[in-house]
Each structure stands twice: as structure tokens, then as C-alpha cells.
């Protein structure tokens, strides 16, 4: 009986020791897990703090740039020299044909004669619109005070040429066929009187060439759209101030 009691006591002791070991292992695992979670949270917090500081730095830079922009705009708008320079630049772009413009003026359309009854090839040439016809019209418009001229929406500037290319005409290196629409901005009555008062239009219409002239308000003429860098070469600006000082 005593031997059985001892075995029972040992059994109880082993159970108790096993329970303690289990509790100890669980406590160790829980502590390790808590430490790992605490470490991960610490890293995340550090990363978040770093991102917040970086965002605040960017925000400060943006604010500074916005302030600098406002200061620059105010300084530019109040600086008389800058305003004058901008006005002069805008005026130069206007007279050079580098800006779109609108105004009153005239619109001229030129077209070949409609089916001339001739056989001789040389005679046929008398009934079609040539580059010389267009050039004569453009020159008369300039005499009449035209401030801007376009041919088929090609802005005419000082270096523009109208070149005959077979049955077509090249304007600013672009090829066009009839009809040709010439727009001119200026005093409509003066332009009309100049065109019709020198016999140019009568000469063309006598040959059957179709010509119309319309006075119109709000004509739109686009800016010169080709590359201007190669239009003028081998020229040098003369410094007049240095010449005066000599």
C-alpha cells in the first residue's frame, strides 16, 4: 500500500512539473512574440516619423518657391523697365508677323479663267493666275496701307516669296493651287480703292480671270508659322552706340 502511495505522489509531482514547464515555455514564447511586435512597431514608427519629416521638408520648399514666385511676379509687374521691354518685344513680334492678329480689312480671291476657248498653249497661260498676279495684288495692298497680309493663311513677311511652280504657287515654301485667298488688314475702304483704282483688277478680269474683293470686319490672320532661324544669314547687328562714342 505504501508503495502505491509513493507512485501516486510521484505521478502528481510529475504532472505538476509538466504543467510548470508548459507554463514557462508559453511565457517565453509570449515574451519573444511581444518583443518582436514591439520591435516591428518601433521600426514602423521610426519610418513614419522619417516620412513625416521628409514631407514637412518638401512642404517648406514648396512654400518657399511659391513665395519666391509671388515676389518675382510683383517685382516684374512693377518694374517699369520690364514692362517697357515687354511692350517693345510684343510690338516687334507684331510688326514682324510672329503673332496672330485680327482686324477689319479686305479678302481677295483669285482664280483662273473658267474654261478659256483657246488651243495655243501660250495663249492658255494668259488665262491662269500667276505668281506675278499675286505679287501685284500684294504690292497694291501695301500701297493701300495693309498692316498684315496672308495668302491662303500663309502670313506674308519681309522675306516671303511667291514662286510659280507649274500650275501651283509656292508661298513660304508651301505649295498651293487655285483659288488663292488673300487677306489684308487695314482700312477696308482705302484698300478697296487702291486695288480697284489702278486698272490691275480690270486687266485680270478682262482676260476672264475670276477676282472678288470683299470688305469685311474681324478678319483673322495667323502668325508666320515656319522656322525663321534660316531666313536671315550673314548679317551682323551694328552697335550704333559704340560708333557714336568714336
TrEMBL record:
InterPro entries on file: DUF881
Top-level taxon: Bacteria
UniProt record similarity statement: Belongs to the UPF0749 family.
Protein name, per record: Division initiation protein
Species whose genome carries this gene: Ruminiclostridium cellobioparum subsp. termitidis CT1112
